[in-house]
Specification:
Length: about 260
Amino acid sequence: MTLDACTEALRQHDPDRFGAVLVAEVQDRPALVTLYALNLEIARAPFQSAEPMLAEMRLQWWIDRLEQMGAGTPPPLHDVLTPLWEAWGAEAGALAPLAEARRRDCERQPFDGPDEVLAYVEATAGALMWAAARRCGAPEGTREIVAYQARGAGLAAWLRALPQLQAVRLGLEPARPGDAQALAERAREGLRLAARMHRKLPRRTAAALYPGPRVPRLLSEVLAGRSDPFEAVPQVTPFQRRASLARLALTGHWWR
């Protein structure tokens, strides 16, 4: 897969990150595109088989390839791994935990409360955002700020996907509205904490820290009880997505 094909995969399956990549500085785009294309692949690997053992074998294949790359061994020709190697080199080995964190998905095991969801989001969305932010120039000392932003963005994305997650037993069980509201509150607090410290991060990191469109609105709807994330959540229209990305491009403001 060429870099252009990775970009097209993002456009089709992850439009928010696709739009953010277009806003990124030119030198950062190959790393972001390949990182996000990898994330797409490892996120869907557990769902390529209904049998947990087979699903885990598919996920383990990605872990093994990333670890080999980390040891300095180029991958065999592959749609995603080849451009990833070109953009990341041996640093791709540090991305293996992104795949490790998806083992739970192979088991089709629902979460029993907000703390488990938060730990999962930190290991997936949190690790992904930090990898992207570092490649976009985030100083090591800003890791906590990025973690707050990732908590807000990741929990909001998880809540938006909750109706689909419930259908495949990867949501919350039992489905308690109070748990969803607790997650929305933690997400909002994460975004607030990151916003307070946004000046410590260079503008170059904006593309990596973009939380997606209409995130505050989603959280407010859940917290006010106007939206039940177990059943349905407010959908993002193409116009709203374009408007949000235009704001990011014009101002560089990733915080809310």
